[in-house]
C-alpha cells in the first residue's frame, strides 16, 4: 500500500471535517472473502462476549482461525449486511491484483479505480480475468440514507458459461429463468439500476 492521508487531526477537532485519502494498492494475493468475514466479526464485537484471557493465550494462527468465517457456508443474512459509505471520507483508490478471491471467483488479474465521496462509491474501469471468463464493470453505490440506498452497474462478461453467469449473479435466475436452459460460452452485457433494502436485497419493483 502506498498513498497519502490528510486531515486526520482536523477530523477529531471538527465535527464536519472529512478525511482525504489517495491510495494505491498492489497485491500478489488478495482474499476478499476473508476481509469481509473479518469485518463482520468486527461489527459484532460489541454484542458477542469475548474471553480476553483465553484470546491472549492463542497463537497468531489460532486467533485467525477463530475469527475467519467461510462466507460460502454462512447464512445469507450474515453475508450481506448493509454497507454504509462514510460521509466524512473523500477517497480515491487504485487497486491492482494478480490473484484475487471473491465468492467462488478466482481472478488471475484484477484492476479497478474507486472513488468515494458524499456517501457514494464509484467503481470505474474494473477489469478481471478469472476461471469463469473475463469480467469488465463500471458501477456506483449510494447510501444517502437507510431508506435511500441505490446501486447501478454496467457489466460485461466475455466467454463465460450461462450457468456460471447465474452463479455469479443469482438474482438473474429470478429475472431471466430461461438463461439456465442455455449452454456454451456467452458474451453478454448487463446494465441495471436499482434500489436496495437494508439487507442488501434488490427491490425488484425499482429495477431498471
Q: Outline, from the CA principal axes?
A: globular
- The termini sit apart by 37 Å
Mean of pLDDT: 79
The overall strand count is 10
Instruction: State the helical fraction.
Output: 10-25%
The unreliable regions are: 46-50, 69-79
The percentage of residues in β strands lies in 35-45%
For the biggest sheet, the summary is: 10 strands, mixed
Q: Supply Rg.
A: 19 Å
Element order, helices and strands? EHEEHHHHEEEEEEHHE
SSE class: alpha+beta
The DSSP helix count reads 7
What multimeric state do the chains show? Answer: single chain
Any overview of this molecule?
With 208 residues, this protein is of the alpha+beta class. Helices cover 23% and strands 44% of the residues. It is built from seven helices and ten strands. Strands 1, 2, 3, 4, 5, 6, 7, 8, 9 and 10 form a ten-stranded mixed β-sheet that branches. A hairpin with a 2-residue loop joins strand 8 and strand 9 (148-161).
Amino acid at each position: 500500500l502506498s498513498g497519502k492521508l490528510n486531515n486526520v487531526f482536523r477530523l477529531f477537532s471538527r465535527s464536519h471535517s472529512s478525511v482525504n485519502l489517495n491510495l494505491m494498492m498492489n497485491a500478489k494475493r488478495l482474499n476478499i472473502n476473508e476481509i469481509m468475514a473479518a469485518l463482520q466479526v468486527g461489527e459484532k464485537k460489541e454484542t458477542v462476549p469475548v474471553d480476553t484471557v483465553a484470546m491472549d493465550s492463542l497463537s497468531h494462527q489460532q486467533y485467525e482461525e477463530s475469527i475467519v468465517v467461510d462466507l460460502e457456508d454462512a447464512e445469507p443474512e450474515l453475508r450481506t449486511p448493509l454497507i454504509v459509505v462514510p460521509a466524512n471520507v473523500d477517497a480515491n483508490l487504485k487497486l491492482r491484483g494478480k490473484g484475487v478471491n471473491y465468492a467462488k471467483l478466482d481472478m488471475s488479474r484484477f484492476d479497478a479505480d474507486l472513488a468515494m465521496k458524499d456517501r457514494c462509491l464509484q467503481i470505474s474501469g474494473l477489469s478481471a480475468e478469472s476461471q469463469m471468463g473475463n469480467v469488465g464493470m463500471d458501477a456506483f453505490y449510494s447510501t444517502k440514507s437507510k431508506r435511500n440506498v441505490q446501486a447501478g452497474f454496467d457489466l460485461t462478461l466475455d466467454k463465460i458459461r450461462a450457468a456460471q453467469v447465474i452463479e455469479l449473479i443469482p438474482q438473474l435466475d429470478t429475472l431471466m429463468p430461461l438463461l439456465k436452459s442455455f449452454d456454451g460460452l456467452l458474451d453478454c452485457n448487463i446494465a441495471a439500476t436499482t434500489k436496495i433494502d437494508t439487507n442488501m436485497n434488490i427491490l425488484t419493483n425499482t429495477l431498471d
